[in-house]
């Protein structure tokens, strides 16, 4: 029985392993057939860069999804970027993408950094997930995804310190 034939169960998040790269490439081809899916070299480069990558694994250790966050800049002025989140189609809708994003945002919060990402303008499910976590649209990148030419929204989530400050201010107004 393959992972796609099993009933969805809890997934465990752990650091993405280099041995998962072939599976990541396989998932990329499932998710982004009309665009330029990431290659094994792209995943290796991301892991080599020191970016924060997590895998979501089923009980047998099969990779069901992955997510990556780059931390840029210097202490006190960090910015972060969600570089990718992908979940095999059969396991979408079971909270795996949500769990991956939450874990990436926790890492961004640890360094009190704003978070940026790009998302296809027609990916309503992903946009709704990002908005649930406080992202807002700050721009459009025309023709961002290739070769399809699909547009992307650039979205931003403020650093946790700004969110806390805004929350404190709204409580003061009550």
Brief write-up:
By secondary structure, the chain is of the alpha+beta class. It has helices at residues 21-31, 40-48, 96-110, 124-132, 160-172; strands at residues 12-15, 52-57, 63-72, 79-87, 115-120, 136-145, 150-157.
How does this model look, in words?
The chain is globular, with a radius of gyration of 17 Å. The protein has five helices and seven strands. A hairpin with a 6-residue loop joins β3 and β4. It has one domain: Gcn5-related N-acetyltransferase (GNAT) (Aminopeptidase, 3-Layer(aba) Sandwich), CATH 3.40.630. It is an alpha+beta fold. It has a seven-stranded mixed beta sheet, sandwiched between helices. This is Ribosomal-protein-alanine acetyltransferase. GO terms for molecular function: N-acetyltransferase activity. InterPro entries: AcTrfase_RimI/Ard1, Acyl_CoA_acyltransferase, GNAT_dom, YpeA/RimI_acetyltransf. Belongs to the acetyltransferase family. RimI subfamily. Keywords: Acyltransferase, Cytoplasm, Transferase.
Oligomeric form? single chain
Any idea what the CATH architecture is? Answer: 3-Layer(aba) Sandwich
Text of the CATH class: Alpha Beta
How many domains?
Answer: 1
- Rg, please? 17 Å
How would you sum up the major sheet? 7 strands, mixed
Query: Strand fraction band?
Result: 25-35%
| CATH fold-level label | Aminopeptidase
Care to count the β-strands?
7
Could you name the CATH homologous superfamily? Gcn5-related N-acetyltransferase (GNAT)
Number of helices: 5
Low-confidence stretches: 1-7
Helix-strand category: alpha+beta
Main β-sheet, spatial strand arrangement: 1-2-3-4-5-7-6
The helix content is: 25-40%
Order of helices and strands: EHHEEEHEHEEH
Average pLDDT confidence is 89
